[in-house]
Structures are given as C-alpha cells and as structure tokens.
Sequence to fold (416 residues):
Amino acid sequence: MFTFFPTLFRRGRVAIALAGLALLTGCDFNFWRMDGHQSTIVVDGPVARAQLEVFYVTCWVTLFIFIIVGAVLAYASLKFRARSDADEHAEPPPQGHGNPLVELGLIGGSVLALVIIAVPTLKAIWFTYDIPAEEKANAYEITAVGYQWWFRFEYPGEQATIDATTKMPLVTGNELVIPAGRPVRINLRTFDVIHSLWIPKLAGKVDMIPNRANFLWLKADKPGYYWGQCAEYCGDSHAVMRFRVVALGPREFNAWLDQQLQPARTLVPRPADTSRPRPQFAALRSFRQNESGVTEKFDVDPLESWRAKQAPEKDENAELVAQGRSLFTTKACITCHTVRGHAGAGVTGPDLTHVGSRSTIGAGLLENNREQLQRWLHDPGAVKPGNKMAKGYVDSKITLTAEDEVALVAYLESLK
Ligand code: CUA
Fold:
C-alpha cells in the first residue's frame, strides 16, 4: 500500500512533465519530428546525412550498452538485496577476485563496440572531407569569409560588371545561393577572428581560422531554403551572426547569377512620379531587442518569399529612390558598403548591389522588409550589439531623420 503512493506520485510527475513539454512547444508537430530550421535530424544533403548516420550508430551502441549494464545492475541489486534484519547485519559473502571469462568478455565487448562505432565514423570522415572523385568535375566553387558579425560570399568563377570596362568576381553577403543537386566546395576564410560555418540541414561545422585555408563541401538534394549560423564564439554578437542558404535548380540558379552579375539597378524618375504621393511607410514600432519580426508568410514558405523578393516592388517611387541614393553617398554609407555601378568601394560591410533581392538583412537576423530595414537603419546597435555600423554612426556623427530613413529604405529596396 505504502509503496503504491510513491509510484503513483512518480508516474504523475512524468505525466505532468510531458504535458508541460507539450504545452511549452504548443504541441508543435515539427518539434516532435525534430524538424526545426536548424535540425540535424531531418536533413537535406549527403554530407549532413553521413554525419547523422554516425550520430545514430553511436546512439544505438551506447543505448545497447546502457540496457545491458542497467539490466545486470538491476539484477544484482534485486537478487542480492538484504531481505531481513539478519541479512543486513550479516558478514559480506566471500569476495571473488576476477573471473577470466568475464574480464575477457568485457574487453572483447568494449573493443567490438569501438569497432562498430569506428568503421562508419572513419568512412564518414573520409566522405565528408572532400568531394567524391566522380563528382569533382561537376563541383561549384564559392569562398565564404567570416566578419564580425556577418558573412561575405564570393563567386570566384563569376565576373560581375562594375562598368563598361571593369569587372570583378561576384560578391554577395549573408545569403549563400547555391546550385541544388551539385556538390559545392566552400573555401573558408576569415577577415578577423575565428568563425565557423554551419548549415545544420546541409553540412557543418568547419572553422574559419586566420591564416589557414580551410574548406568544406556540401550538396543540397533539391531546391530549398536553409538556416545557417556561425558556430564558433566570435564576440558580442556571435549568437546573431546568422545567414541563409538558398538552393536553386539549374535554370533558376543561372537566372539568379545573371541578375547578380549586373551592376545596380537605376530607376529613372518619370514625370508622373513627382506628382505621385510618397509611399506611406509603417511607423517604426518599438521592437524588443533581436525580435525576429518575421512575417507568417515567410515562415510558411521561405523559398517562395525569397523568389518574391527578386522582382521590383510594385509601389516603388523613383523620386524617393533617387533621394535615398544621394543620401547613401552623403551620409557616408559608401565608406563601408559598395553598390556596384552606383557608388562606394567599401569592404567593411556587406556588398549592397542587390540587397533588395535578399530575403533577410542584418546577417540573416531580420526579414528584409520596409519596417525592418528602417528599424536597422534607425538603430543598428539595438539589433546587433557592438556592430561596426552602430559605431560608424557615432564616430562620423551621422544622424538620420525619419524622412532620410524612409528614402534610404526606398533606395535599398530598389536594389534588386
Ligand atoms: Cu562568428 Cu561566431
């Protein structure tokens, strides 16, 4: 009778804990499938799959050991427990000193367990280290450079136009667009401290180390939109040093490249534009620090939302864009940023030539929309503590009026 209550109490606790967990996760289906944005359990590429297989093998082996050892321990505890007062005060039974069969069995079992783990681990290390020979000829090369706290992506094989006579390798920021179904070799470099590139559903993590030429390779099975994260502590805003990966089919990837290789888009104000009312921007709400501000639509189908960003906004106002373009120069944005074909040769901050076509800003932190762009321009330090743009505002005594912010947002948004 008395043993019944603790059992009931324990069962009750488990039930309450499970119910609490279900409530906390809002009975989120993806939580129970373990398929979050950064899941390493539901993966979309051969490298992440090889890493997952090693994880599972190790889990099963350790679970097997846990069950065997637990069962032996439970058996011994029950069989040899004290059954009466006399038992408790009795002398301990004669002690054994080693049983060769048991000891050899334990050594053999441990070696076997290690071999079972080692074989797939070594295979995975070889596989993930470099692109398989038969696929090497088809590989696409990209260089990723870590900065405090954002990523620059270079496409060494693609020559982007600056003007009629000058070209440079294509440079983008914070959104890594790759061809789906093709192995991608990513050279890993850093501008300052150690960072680490990690796209949980595709591959990772490999460090970006000063003065060391690391690389990793990955392949996305199919077109998709993925979440990435710097995985090595690198200063104040390490936790918000994120990025996105967009994998596209061959035709869509080439179309994207063609657009990116163009210099910045220039809007010519038509007479009608000056008479059109200026677009009404949503008033700047007071955001909590690092609130994602991601709209529901974006969360449901991020790849479709990304595609929608490739086309010009329907209500763009050329006059306002021109005003923003001039502020981009006079407010010293050009010292850190480049808009290829317009102004600036800055390399401290991300290249903004086609920033309007990206789905996020602030290194994968905020959705790229008017409200969030204005929020970022208004006070970048509140979104990403310690970043150089916030320092730049203070050092250069830059102040933006609400009207400046609106014009700059219109300009950045026009850069498709
Ligand atoms: Cu870069 Cu952490």
